[in-house]
Design goal:
Blueprint (H helix, E strand, L loop, with lengths): L2 H11 L19 H21 L6 E7 L6 E3 L4 E4 L5 E4 L2 E8 L3 H8 L7 E2 L3 E4 L6 E5 L1 E2 L4 E8 L15 H19 L11 H14 L14
Parallel strand pairs: 5-7, 6-9
Antiparallel strand pairs: 1-10, 2-8, 3-10, 4-5, 4-10, 7-8
Amino acid sequence: MNFLGAVNRIMVNNFILKGDDDLLTTFSDNQHEATTRVAINAVQTELNNFTSYFNIPYEKTSGSIVTVAGTRTYLLPSDFVRFYGDNPYLVNNADDSDRIYEYKGGENSLRQADYTYLTTQGGEHWWYWNDNTNKEIALYQVPDGARTYSFDYERDISVTNATDTMPFQTEQEAQAFADMASRRFKYIVEEQDLADLEKDVEYGFNRSTLMNLLRNRNMNTRYGKQYR
């Protein structure tokens, strides 16, 4: 399912498109222009909300940085959202046992521990966030040579164009997500309090359906201990 397909599903679910109405073919169609804009926002907002709480397979990817002698800070990929998993690390491509973890307490703690941290060169022992207008990290010690480090991260999976693929592995998952966004759309157009959306029974049902589909193992069919 692409972005346009999700919007069409929302419009059908909410009886905006009904009877002999044709499905939208582009976001620039004059038909139902105002409600189309609301449906677009509903999908984007729901996707942002869902992925802020849950990691989905589509998000995971990998990247790398190449150190330069005397260079302390390194930009992360343009689609970087956050590192993947708990206690993330950078791994040296030349020696996968050489891993760099985040300095506990970040730069504020490091500057108290070593007042020369901005200039001291040597082998890299830690990484820490470098607060800036871009997402970037800094290394301690400052690299003294060229080395390549790889890392896993969660990428930006936002949708913008009608042809953008919804970031789900199966059509079922995309449909369940569109059904969640349908409830958000309904609350917006009917000017209901969005704070009540989490308590909406149908919204909760659709989210549970999506979560079950995203699981990598079968659901338990019985409760309690099993004896052989």
